[in-house]
């Protein structure tokens, strides 16, 4: 059932281009479904590559004037957008739950999280510092500026329909870049709501454009972004194989790129950890959005001294989950996005069981609730020949390994091409410090399972990608350093 929005303007069904709701001439459409009920929410135009090219041109034209706006104006618009998101918190959260299926409390958290990037970059916008540098010749001076890279293409995933776009657009707006955003075809409504609010916040026409493309037409749109000489940077959040494809496709135009890709996050629980805390926080990490975040724990390594106790405490908590429609009172976990996501969990469970893993909590499909509802599995005695060791499940499977020594667990944790997040639970400072340093991950979270924040440099190493979103580094990804040499400066 459609949620009642206090502000009906937040529900839009057209692309947003050049400050207007755009009447697409495309003959094709696509449907957006509520994954919890499978009801159609809305039918949207499936824009053609020609329309995407036109929208890119508009984004590029707008850059010529937007890049000259003052940092103080941009800061004000960003702050307005933050305020507007917070004022419309309930409606924005309802739209997320409706199109993504996550429970309302998670959706509220997502809106606050996404809004916090606009707040953060409203402040950072004014601090886009350059340097003065003394070269070898004492009569010359070097001055550097950080200039906006140009119009940027933002390609966003389904799992945070609001916050991923916000995390990319906020630093872009702050430095003077214009944006063309393509949301995931399954969850485009939050981006349209954001476009409406960005317009209300005062951003000039053409600064923020949202194009609409079905899942099937997405590769053609991606190619258009990559091959366009007008787009100077692409920021992508999604899986590693798609990231690699976009990187390759962009080589002809040598774009600047940010790649926030897949992970395979380990959690390490040492014997000396605060066990209550480790259990509670491992649950929070593993089952946030039912396992559909790139920083969700994929592998749980528990030291032998606390292995059995940890598993028993962990399982008790999982059994208390209330799975259901994200809008329903008391629901702790919603549904998965689609059947492909469910098959992936099943594939990992079946593979692990066939190789000797043991069931601690039996999960599986919950057809009475709907086609995409899935109860979590907890499996123990996982080994490194199992699929879940090597691939991200991106769903509700907690795979628990036993380990003996620090050296052994570090070797196992790093035995993956991915390197996004990792977690360490220990009360020993020495262990925490040395293990954190040696883990091959862009972000190590110590004694907490929920660590992301606008202040954090978010990003990975290895095949989890490159670039840092948020934090004091976030604007760097959207700027290029311009150097000016002042010659023959004499006293
Ligand atoms: N590192 C991060 O910040 C982060 C955040 C969220 C998700 N992810 C990763 O994303 C994956 C799950 O998300 P997913 O299944 O939606 O991933 P995906 O790579 O299949 O899709 C991501 C987005 O890219 C689009 N896409 C797919 N093919 C494309 C193409 N050829 N050109 C342009 N765009 C294309 C999709 O429509 C979607 O919007 C996981 O691996 C997860 O770890 C990473
Ligand atoms: O899924 C990726 C983003 C997760 C987060 O930013 O907390």
Which short descriptors sum up this protein?
single chain, 491 residues, alpha/beta, seven-stranded mixed sheet, six-stranded mixed sheet, 36% helix, globular, binds nicotinamide-adenine-dinucleotide, binds 4-oxobutanoic acid, Ald_DH_C
Give a quick summary of the entry.
The active site is at residue 260. Helix 2 (71-87) packs antiparallel against helix 5 (163-175).
Descriptive report:
This protein has 491 residues and is α/β, with parallel strands linked by helices. It has 14 helices and 24 strands. It has helices at residues 49-66, 71-87, 89-100, 104-124, 163-175, 189-201, 218-227, 240-249, 275-287, 307-319, 339-354, 387-390, 406-414, 429-438, and strands spanning 16-17, 20-21, 29-33, 40-45, 132-133, 141-148, 152-155, 179-182, 208-210, 233-237, 256-260, 265-269, 297-303, 358-361, 364-365, 374-375, 377-380, 397-403, 418-419, 421-425, 443-446, 461-462, 465-466, 479-486. The strands form seven sheets. A seven-stranded mixed beta sheet has the order 14-17-18-13-12-20-21, sandwiched between helices. A six-stranded mixed beta sheet has the order 9-8-7-10-11-23, with helices on both faces. Strands 5-6-24 form a three-stranded antiparallel beta sheet, with no helix packed on it. Helix 1 (49-66) crosses helix 7 and helix 3 (89-100) packs across helix 4 (104-124). The longest helix has 21 residues, at 104-124. The protein is globular, with a radius of gyration of 23 Å.
């Amino acid at each position: 059932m459609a949620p009642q929005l206090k502000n009906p303007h937040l529900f839009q069904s057209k692309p947003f281009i050049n400050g207007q709701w755009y009447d697409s001439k495309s003959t094709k459409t696509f449907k957006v479904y509520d994954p919890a009920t499978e009801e159609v929410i809305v039918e949207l135009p499936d824009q053609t590559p020609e329309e995407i090219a036109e929208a890119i041109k508009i984004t590029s034209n707008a850059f010529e004037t937007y890049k000259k706006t003052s940092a103080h104006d941009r800061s004000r618009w960003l702050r307005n957008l933050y305020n507007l998101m917070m004022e419309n918190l309930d409606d924005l959260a309802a739209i997320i739950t409706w199109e993504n299926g996550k429970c309302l409390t998670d959706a509220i958290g997502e809106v606050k999280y996404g809004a916090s990037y606009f707040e953060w970059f409203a402040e950072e916008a004014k601090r886009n510092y350059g340097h003065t540098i003394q070269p070898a010749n004492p009569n010359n001076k070097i001055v550097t500026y950080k200039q906006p890279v140009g119009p940027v293409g933002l390609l966003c995933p389904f799992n945070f329909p609001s916050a991923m776009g916000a995390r990319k657009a906020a630093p872009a707006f702050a430095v003077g870049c214009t944006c063309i955003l393509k949301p995931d075809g399954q969850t485009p409504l939050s981006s349209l709501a954001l476009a409406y609010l960005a317009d209300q916040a005062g951003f000039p026409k053409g600064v923020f454009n949202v194009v609409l493309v079905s899942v099937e037409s997405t590769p053609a749109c991606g190619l258009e972004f990559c091959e366009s000489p007008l787009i100077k940077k692409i920021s992508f959040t999604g899986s590693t194989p798609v990231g690699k494809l976009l990187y390759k496709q962009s080589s002809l135009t040598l774009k600047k790129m940010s790649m926030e890709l897949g992970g395979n996050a380990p959690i390490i629980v040492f014997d000396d950890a605060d066990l209550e805390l480790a259990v509670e926080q491992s649950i929070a990490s593993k089952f946030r959005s039912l396992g559909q975040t790139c920083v969700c724990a994929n592998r749980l390594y528990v030291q032998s001294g606390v292995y059995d106790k940890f598993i028993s405490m962990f399982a008790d908590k999982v059994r208390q989950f209330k799975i259901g429609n994200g809008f329903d009172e008391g629901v702790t976990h919603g549904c998965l996005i689609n059947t492909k996501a469910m098959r992936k969990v099943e594939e990992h469970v079946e593979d692990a069981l066939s190789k000797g893993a043991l069931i601690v909590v039996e999960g599986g499909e919950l057809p009475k609730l709907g086609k995409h509802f899935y109860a979590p599995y907890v499996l123990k005695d996982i080994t490194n020949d199992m699929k879940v060791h090597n691939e991200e499940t991106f769903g509700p499977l907690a795979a628990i390994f036993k380990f003996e020594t620090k050296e052994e667990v570090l070797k196992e944790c790093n035995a993956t091409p991915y390197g996004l997040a990792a977690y360490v639970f220990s009360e020993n400072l020495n262990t925490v410090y040395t293990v954190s340093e040696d883990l091959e991950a862009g972000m190590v979270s110590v004694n907490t399972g929920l660590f992301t924040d606008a202040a954090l440099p978010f990003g990975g190493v290895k095949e989890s990608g490159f670039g840092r979103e948020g934090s004091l580094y976030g604007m760097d990804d959207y700027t290029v350093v311009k150097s000016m040499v002042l010659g023959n400066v004499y006293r």
